[in-house]
Design a protein that fits this description.
mainly alpha; nitrate assimilation; single chain; MFS_dom; Nitrate/nitrite transporter; transmembrane
Length: 402
């Protein structure tokens, strides 16, 4: 299991390097995970897909990446983040190259299914980074690592541009090369934190123990909403903006990438605030702001107001993401961080899988996205009530155990 007792003199020199390597590796893997979404409108036109079929296509990597986090988190407790991150990145090259040559809907679905592995690397990075830092600095450290979400924004900007300028296969080749570099870097120069111990219990035992913790279940629900909302908008916003506001594919993808960038940049801020004032209050206020923004954008206001609404929503979701993992780093026993991350991360990914499907079905049936966005507002309001009146009171304002 991953021991996190402080070993200050031996860890200081390696912390920054470990955090930088993990964040860069996470960003590259997230770019791979998000390769299909920016090209969704292109595949829709080339293959004559319905809105629902496109929704399924962009959501498939999300669901696999979600469930895969359970397995990779547990394996990281046993084998360490260095080995698991290196191997997962190298294996991720296979579906990326396959998708470069995929020319049918079934082939794209198959490639997207395996591509989900790259999104599961999040569950490797959290225990890997967590083990390097003392409790009072984990919120900020995990928030910085979470900035690897920027890979989704990189995909939104770079994937359509590379495809338009150099051909549809080129972004896949670029990402494959980056995955090889990351994988080899982890295996060659990466190091696990000093004092790390290998887990010996069977996978099911560790998974069940982590899932039984009340805090794990609570954070899983909150992450399903905050990170799930981030992923859902990251993958579906280009289609939404194109359909509702008539934007070009490139413009819609760029605006969606801006959403992802802001949510990514505010994530370490959420972790930093949680280290100082407590994760539960930060999470509660973030949910309140997200609720307000969801109500505003559900009415499809003029583009300037919609832009502000979506950007503030992005910031709120990013702050919430940072607060969730600041709480996880402090509240979950050190020996269970990898397994608990798998549970919480899986819930977050599943939270990103369902909304695009629901939005696609609602739009196909009604020609409007308003109902789907109002559902988001309703769920967010319920989460705020629980966080403010139950979670915050139970663990205390400073995030200590009650």
């Amino acid at each position: 299991m991953t021991a996190v007792a402080a070993v200050p003199e031996t860890r200081k020199g390696g912390r920054a390097a470990a955090l930088a390597l993990a964040t860069a590796g996470f960003a590259v893997n997230f770019w791979a995970w998000a390769l299909i979404s920016p090209l969704g409108p292109t595949y829709k036109e080339l293959l004559g897909l319905t809105p629902f079929e496109v929704s399924v296509l962009v959501a498939i990597p999300v669901i696999v990446g979600s469930l895969g986090r359970i397995v990779l988190g547990a394996l990281t407790d046993r084998y360490g983040g260095r080995l698991m991150f290196g191997l997962a990145s190298l294996v991720g090259v296979i579906p990326v190259i396959f998708l470069a040559f995929a020319g049918s809907y079934s082939a794209l679905l198959t490639g997207g299914l395996v591509l989900g592995l790259t999104g599961a690397t999040f569950a490797i990075g959290v225990p890997y980074v967590n083990a390097w830092f003392p409790p009072e600095r984990r919120g900020l450290a995990l928030g910085i690592f979470g900035m690897g979400n920027i890979g989704t924004a990189i995909s939104g900007f770079a994937t359509p541009w590379l495809a338009d300028e150099f051909g549809r296969q080129v972004p896949f080749f670029v990402v494959a090369a980056a995955l090889v570099v990351v994988g080899l870097a982890f295996l060659a120069v990466g190091r696990d934190a000093p004092g790390m111990q290998r887990a010996s219990e069977p996978f099911l035992t560790r998974f069940t123990a982590a899932a039984r913790l009340r805090i794990t279940r609570e954070l899983a629900a909150m992450y399903a909403l905050t990170f799930g909302g981030f992923v859902a908008f990251g993958v579906y916003l280009p289609l939404y903006l194109k359909e509702v506001y008539g934007l070009s594919t490139a413009d819609a993808a760029a605006r969606a990438a801006g959403f992802v960038v802001l949510a990514t940049l505010t994530r370490p801020v959420g972790g930093w605030l949680a280290d100082r004032v407590g994760g539960a209050p930060v999470l509660a206020y973030s949910l309140a702001v997200a609720f307000t923004c969801a109500i505003i954008v559900s009415f499809a206001p003029a583009m300037p107001l919609a832009t502000v609404g979506f950007l503030v929503l992005a910031a709120a979701l990013g702050l919430g993401n940072g607060a969730v993992f600041a709480l996880l780093g402090r509240k979950v026993p050190a020996a269970m961080v990898g397994s608990a991350t798998g549970v919480v991360g899986a819930a977050g990914g599943l939270g990103g899988f369902l909304p695009p499907i629901v939005m696609g079905l609602i739009y196909q049936a009604t020609g409007s996205y308003s109902i789907g966005l109002m559902l988001l507002a309703a769920v967010t309001s319920a989460a705020f009530v629980y966080c403010w009146f139950i979670l915050r009171q139970r663990i205390g304002h400073a995030g200590t155990a009650a």
